[in-house]
Amino acid sequence: MPSRLESFFKAIVWPLVAVTLGVYLAMVLWSLPQLQTYSDGQLAFDLRPMGYGYEDAQSLISALGPDGINFYLGIQQFLDLFYPALMALTLFVSIALLLPKNFGIWRLILPWIAFPGAAFDYAENTAVREMLLGGPEGLDPTLVAWASQASQMKALFSSMAMLLLAVLLLRWGWRRLRGARES
Q1: How many CA atoms lie within 13 A of 107 on its CB side?
Q2: Total Cβ atoms within 10 A of residue 29
Q3: Are 32 and 44 in contact (CB under 8 A)?
Q4: Is residue 180 pLDDT above 70, yes or no?
């Protein structure tokens, strides 16, 4: 990574982490639990990494009722407009900074693993919006299947990026710990 770009990434990584964490916490501590309250304990589509079927979608949308649907379409989808991009950028920058310098071309390729998860998250959000607008009676089985597949792909690619970041963080921590022992 060129030194100017590396300096830029170092300057933005912690503010980016803070903003991403703020949006994440708003969803995890407020909007998603609120949706669960509206839906009599059912998990929002966003929290179903293994996907869902037509009956699951119909049950959730019915349980949400008009107020829950409005909250989902408003607050939750507003927060989820920002979260995928923020998370992808945070993962991209973090992975880019932590990759070993001797990884050659892989230092330019591997950070991009952060973006497919965001793309599938946006695809899921679009499908969920259409499902919510159609209501339980207007639910299209093809749209539900598409949304479910987007959820699964979001979970897969996000997990791959987070696993790579976790491995790189462990490597970084191990090297720091080992360096501290040698001093």
Answers
A1: 13
A2: 10
A3: yes
A4: no
| Closest to 174 (Cα-Cα) out of 74, 92, 88, 100 | 100
- What pLDDT, on the 0 to 100 scale, is given for residue 79? 98
CA–CA distance, 96 with 21 (Å, rounded to integer)? 19
Angle ∠(44,45,48) on CA atoms, nearest 5: 100
- For residue 109, give both structure tokens: 């390729």
183 has a pLDDT exceeding 80: no
Distance, in Å, from the CA atom of 60 to the CA atom of 67, rounded to the nearest integer, reads 13
Vertex 24, ends 49 and 45: CA angle to 5°?
30
| CA separation, residue 138 to residues 75, 98, 141 (Å) | 23, 47, 10
Query: Which pTM value belongs to this model?
Result: 0.91
Sequence ranges of the domains in the chain: 3-174
**Amino acid of residue 31:** S
Q: Is the pLDDT of residue 1 over 60?
A: no
By residue count, the chain amounts to: 183
What mean pLDDT value characterizes the chain? 95
Return the exposure string of 157-181: e unless at least 16 CB atoms fall within 10 Å of the residue's CB, then b: bbeebbebbeebeeeeeeeeeeeee
